[in-house]
Specification:
By secondary structure, this protein is of the alpha/beta class. It folds into 2 domains: about 210 residues, Alpha-beta prism (UDP-n-acetylglucosamine1-carboxyvinyl-transferase, Chain); about 210 residues, Enolpyruvate transferase domain (UDP-n-acetylglucosamine1-carboxyvinyl-transferase, Chain), CATH 3.65.10. About 30% of the residues lie in helices and about 25% in strands. The protein is globular, with a radius of gyration of 21 Å. The protein starts with a strand and ends with a helix. The structure holds shikimate-3-phosphate and phosphoenolpyruvate. Phosphoenolpyruvate binds next to α3. Pathway: Metabolic intermediate biosynthesis; chorismate biosynthesis; chorismate from D-erythrose 4-phosphate and phosphoenolpyruvate: step 6/7. One of its GO terms (molecular function) is 3-phosphoshikimate 1-carboxyvinyltransferase activity. Keywords: Amino-acid biosynthesis, Aromatic amino acid biosynthesis, Cytoplasm, Transferase. Belongs to the EPSP synthase family.
Amino acid sequence: MSKIIQIAKTGGLTGAITIPGDKSISHRSIMLSGLADTPVTITNFLHAADCWSTINCMRALGVIVEEDKGGVLTVQGKGLYGLSEPSDVLDAGNSGTTIRLLTGLLGAQPFFSVLTGDASIRNRPMARVIAPLAKMGLQIAGRGQSRYAPLAISAPEQVRGIEYDMPVASAQVKSAILLAALYANTPTTITEPIPSRDHTERMFETFGIPVKREGRAIILEPIQKIAAPKRLDVPGDISSAAFWLVAASIIPNSELALINVGINPTRTGILDVLTQMGADITITNNRWSGREPVADIVVRSANLKGVTIEAEIIPRLIDEIPILAVAALFAEGQTVVKGAEELRVKETDRLKAVALELGKMGATITENPDGLVIDGPQSINAAICDSHHDHRMAMSLAVAGSAAQGVTITESDCVKISYPDFFDVLSKLRQD
Ligand SMILES: O=C(O)C1=C[C@@H](OP(=O)(O)O)[C@@H](O)[C@H](O)C1
Ligand SMILES: C=C(OP(=O)(O)O)C(=O)O
């Protein structure tokens, strides 16, 4: 794929899109299956670069992962106590989920390992996982006084359960602790400031690991074994569907059917906010994919209005702020995003990148330390914009350009991180 892509203005988008597998759930499906004693077949796995980083790390620990021609995976795990010492450095690539979750899992193993990733990953905060894991007895050291990867992980003397009040709402930190807690000799209680995505908890239950939830607390008792399912199906990723939800809302004469979208309530902040903005969204065909709720979603063009997005909802739409900023440019009135300072430590500083790159298209966006203020509607022009190597930025810019006067995006191949077919799907739906 070319690194520079030109996107033209488009007429209404119509058709049906089967949404690719959920990235968060795909990572977890490989990790848990890797700890199983019996083979697990995984359907609708997200074949994107981040999830392959997880597969490659698990393979380096001895787990066998096979892929058939249709992309269905079969994982032959090593059992809870069967992972082996990797002979080389483990590479998480661009994936924060891979490096953070594996830090918890590897920290509890009786061997040495080193975890690193690309330039972006080596700049993302790791102290937030190392601090609670150290309280559990794990031995993890990193660059910059253990704030950054590469991380060197040594065998712990023992793994203790902890009671931990999380200072930041982060599913990655919560999950790292839960994975380490699988090896603890005492219970672990984690309390979240605001509930974050609960895919790890649901996946644990799918693997026969009981997880107690009491208000904002999550409790895991010491376990002896796990009981893997034979098959696991990954629902479609609502964070990928988000680009189509906004594109169809802001491009006149659009009607898209989004098939197989995960609608776990810890992820549906985008639906709540778009509905509040006046979007025309219908949820149909509600069903279950294992312990995860799934539906089809029909979205039609609508006149949007600005809204205030408060801190409390941010964890439920954490990855959707860039595309919501695009929606806000087309909405009548002011949109304010608050309590979103976590966006500064993602693949790039997403608050800064949104203001800068949409600014190149002529948009005026005020960047606050913890959010954005966007007055709409604004007319935006064609421009050459940079993705900052951030998949969600690239896709958000493509939607903005499609709805306005077109856009040229540099470093556009980063969409391979979460949605490799994104530009192909967009070009098939276009009515030029
Ligand atoms: O646990 C996960 O799968 C994820 C959690 C979120 O990160 P944080 O835990 O850092 O908020 C999210 O931004 C990321 O895309 C995926
Ligand atoms: C932040 C993201 O992922 P990760 O933290 O896994 O790199 C994302 O997908 O937007």
